[in-house]
């Protein structure tokens, strides 16, 4: 097997490499500036300043809309804080989410609904994985307390119609809190429209060349989520626990970089993804997921009929290309993703999905070389399994 | 301005350079998601997490599968208390804890109490110690859990965890130990001490902020905790979310270093603490020790300066980074709940200062802090009306 360093990494939806300058921004807080930001002495005050600077940076990168930002340990915690936190703030209400949520949102919605003793309503999607807005409308009522919707879908790569969905939510469920999972879309596409439509957004640093261990919940409502953690009262009482200053500083820097490069990277990556989709589509017996729907500029997923996803993945890795299959979270449990079921894939098809995901660090030559290898790899694996 | 002398090691500790060195590769080239089971980037991350899990387990006398990684002790404590309360609902609804616990325990227990859980708050004596007979007497048929800390973060009191564990085990009650200040500082062995659940944090033992671990007994019989967050099923479903691989690697290395140096470091810090204490009491009158004289966390000294406001004292000795209470509470100016619990008046509580000594503390620093403290106390007393 090739060494890791020589590999072309194309699984950025799972995690991205830390940008060098992000690490530079973090290192002072892992060395001399190590104080607890709650401490009143000068080193504590300096750590507190780093936190607040990062908070402004991340909030400013989301949109111009004034809001509040709570730092969390990552996207999973942010989704849980939003869904359980806002859900518990309005007990007894109906909870709605889509059929293509990340497990952290889907299961939090299930848990929040279970606390009220009712099932969580799931909004169906079409074959591309986009929300069925009529079905959404049917799930909503005056009793709906919380709606959780994903923006950039992590397994298929489609961008969901958040603005349209929000309009329906406001009309039919005026008391509902609308939470949007923006973990995959943040830093990849502009979020102004989504931020204008949503009551809260979840974000994660390690999907935008920031560190693992930092994420955020941004909210625009006067209402506050009930905390998941109790104790020292950090983050305005919404998230107790000593803040991960280094990771948060890194998050701030990562967001700054993403924001600065967005205008250049979005069309470039969109072009590379179009090339990938074209090449996958040109292969026989390949179903490129997401159809013609609006997309993230970073994720391409396809069903390769007659080739198990992980075998193709291993075969390509031996040739120096690292790709994904289902999402990393499903890979751990071995279960077939609910998303693939929701778009109507059979179990066999779901097991034949590969996901190629790009980032700022992906070069045109990475993609070219991958595409040279792809047809032969598919052929080889199909032969192997016949 | 020159950097102050850091004497706030119970609030947080610097990352040991050996720990940072171990972490660095996992920030940059080894950045894989530990849940990416299909490729080498994921395996490499998994292998690093596995190794850290083994080290944490070994240091505590536990098995690797009994370690659940968290974002820190506050999260670990929440998962332990709420998770145990939820999964033991059939058995009972009574918890025993103590007034001097960390706010993460106190506030979580209060939250549970608001939802119908009965709570017994054990009193402490003037040194912050509980009475084991009172603990035994507090346990009933309905008691599911005892939550008592290993070492107090403000006044350094060490609870007799092995005795507490024995009492709990005899009565079939779970013992949850918040060992955030204890792991790596005092000997802890979850089997010997009969601990069922234990929480600790990397940043109190020269590891990074943002990483911690919960020991959850896995056999004879296993302890079940209901997950408090939902997601991708990581950490046996108890704690979902992409693992903070560099943080976890740092936690592992921090445990390893602390365990290697525990006995020599404890002796060194005890000596430095006495030197600090003696120096200050020789220099100014009207100083009393909060907490026990002997059986205390080696690096903790909490002193009451009669007639001196601790906030003013901190301002008067800006060359030293110390704390007037626990770091978490210090943004509000409430009198310390720990000092109140050991019988201090509000005035005494507001006249107390915590000196936290640690691995990087030198004798020179101690002598300098003695000098600065003595001078500042004298100045404040002279200028007092």
Describe the structure.
- The complex is a heterodimer of chains A (386) and B (385).
- Chain A has helices spanning 20-30, 42-62, 75-89, 103-115, 133-139, 162-172, 192-197, 245-282, 309-318, 328-333, 338-342, 347-350, 364-385, and strands spanning 8-9, 68-72, 94-98, 121-123, 144-150, 177-181, 200-204, 215-219, 286-288, 299-304, 321-322, 353-357.
- With 386 residues, chain A is an alpha/beta fold.
- Chain A has a 7-stranded mixed sheet, sandwiched between helices. A 3-stranded antiparallel sheet of chain A has the order 9-10-12. In chain A, strands 1-11 form a two-stranded parallel ribbon.
- In chain A, helix 1 packs antiparallel against helix 8, helix 2 packs parallel to helix 8 (245-282) and helix 9 (309-318) packs across helix 13.
- Chain A is globular.
- The mean pLDDT of chain A is 94.
- Chain B is an alpha/beta fold.
- Chain B folds into 2 domains: 5-12 and 262-383, Aspartate Aminotransferase, domain 1; 17-257, Aspartate Aminotransferase, domain 2, CATH 3.40.640.10.
- Chain B has a 7-stranded mixed sheet, with helices on both faces.
- The longest helix of chain B is centred in the last third of the chain and has 39 residues, at 245-283.
- The relative contact order of chain B is 0.17.
- The model of chain B has no long low-confidence stretch (mean pLDDT 95).
- At the A-B interface, helix 1, helix 2, helix 3, helix 4 and helix 8 of A face helix 1, helix 2, helix 3, helix 4 and helix 7 of B.
